[in-house]
């Protein structure tokens, strides 16, 4: 966390959310899951904020300019600069990891909005990441709410391992599409964009793997028949974590495949996605 001077262009008392700008208009094409976690959390807490869109190629420059180091590393140890960040003009703080942002919002504004982001609950979900592919997941700097931190890491791993299903539907800015694709290739450790292409058979296999990976997660939602949230009618940050990945899935999967995901495991993910529309406004 850094507390550098806040640029004068931001309005007093408001929070600035830095999100990845994809295809214009950015507010209609934002699909990155970690910024969605923070947007959901800000809306949940009912806090005034605005969004600053940052092109993927400018992320490292913007983070460094705000005094925020990379919060992830690639398998070779190099830094992975990504978003979201928030800049709170009321306190002068910047926070640069989605989980740490949620913790910051809860601790700084405990009584705001819809209540507690981190109510006590069991979050027994584990996804074993393949040893063949290592996804650069973030490590939260804050030591609070370890049950939620573990849940966040496992949900991230489960969805990240299946993002090849979504790559082809990512909306890119035509002005920078080639540079952006090259950055995705570099991050994935591949040789070309064509390496993301899945044969029909491979896609079917990965889709089945995706469905199976979400099976144990769905069981948590099915435990409380009052749904659609893990705690029934009370949303928590755990619901927002899953909901953020569902936003990406909805934006990037072919429509027919997204409709399949909505129906999987008794329709719990479609119900969750729709219920979180309450907190999905892009400001």
From TrEMBL:
It holds the Pfam family GST_N_2. Residues 31-107 form the GST N-terminal domain. It comes from the Eukaryota. Residues 194-279 form the Glutathione S-transferase UstS-like C-terminal domain. This is Uncharacterized protein. It comes from Hypocrea virens (strain Gv29-8 / FGSC 10586).
């Amino acid at each position: 966390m850094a507390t550098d001077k806040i640029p004068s262009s931001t309005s007093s008392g408001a929070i600035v959310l830095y999100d990845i700008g994809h295809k214009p208009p950015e507010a209609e094409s934002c699909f990155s899951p970690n910024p969605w976690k923070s947007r959901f959390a800000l809306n949940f807490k009912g806090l005034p904020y605005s969004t600053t869109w940052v092109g993927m190629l400018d992320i490292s420059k913007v983070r460094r300019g705000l005094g925020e180091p990379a919060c992830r590393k690639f398998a070779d140890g190099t830094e992975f600069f990504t978003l979201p960040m928030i800049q709170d003009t009321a306190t002068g703080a910047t926070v640069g990891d989605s989980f740490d942002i949620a913790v910051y919002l809860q601790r700084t504004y405990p009584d705001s909005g819809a209540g507690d982001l981190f109510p006590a609950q069991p979050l027994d979900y584990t996804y074993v990441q393949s040893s063949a592919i290592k996804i650069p997941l973030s490590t939260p700097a804050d030591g609070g709410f370890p049950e939620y931190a573990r849940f966040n890491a496992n949900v991230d791993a489960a969805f990240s391992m299946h993002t090849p299903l979504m790559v082809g539907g990512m909306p890119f800015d035509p002005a920078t599409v080639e540079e952006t694709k090259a950055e995705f290739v570099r991050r994935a450790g591949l040789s070309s964009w064509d390496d993301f292409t899945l044969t029909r058979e491979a896609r079917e296999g990965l889709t089945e793997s995706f469905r199976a990976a979400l099976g144990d997660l769905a069981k948590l939602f099915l435990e409380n028949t009052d749904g659609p949230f893990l705690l029934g009618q009370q949303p928590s940050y755990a619901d927002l974590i899953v909901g953020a990945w569902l936003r990406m899935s909805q934006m990037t999967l072919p429509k027919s495949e997204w409709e399949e995901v909505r129906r999987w495991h008794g329709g719990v993910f479609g119900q969750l996605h729709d219920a979180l529309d309450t907190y999905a406004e892009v400001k």
